[in-house]
Amino acid sequence: MRFIKNYLFNLGLLIIIGVILYAIYPDFSSAIAQVSWALWGPLVLILLAIFAFPRSRRRD
């Protein structure tokens, strides 16, 4: 549970930094967002689909 709290805290910080940078440099930030989505978007969608499948449990 501690890992999830720390992860969400770090994710929140990154989102806040991203919003601040977008407010200061909107053109530059939108260009970065488009490039990063083009590079990482398909991978994220594939990973989300893989993690959505139920995991099989092994019987010992």
Structure report:
With 60 residues, this protein is mostly helical. It has one domain. Helices cover 83% and strands 0% of the residues. It has two helices and no strands. It has helices at 2-24, 26-52. Helix 1 (2-24) packs antiparallel against helix 2 (26-52). The mean pLDDT is 82.
Lay out the secondary structure.
Blueprint: H1 2-24, H2 26-52
Q: How would a textbook summarize the main sheet?
A: none
| Quaternary state of the chains | single chain
Please mark out the parts with pLDDT under 50 across 5 or more consecutive residues, or reply none: none
Tally of individual helices: 2
Terminal CA distance reads 27 Å
* Inertia-based shape: flat
Helix/strand order:
HH
Strand proportion, as a percent range, falls in: under 5%
Count of the separate structural domains: 1
Q: From the helix content, strand content and strand pairing, which structural class follows?
A: mainly alpha
Report the count of strand segments. 0
Radius of gyration from the alpha-carbon trace, in angstroms: 17 Å
Query: What is the average per-residue confidence, as pLDDT, rounded to a whole number?
Result: 82
**Overall helicity:** over 70%
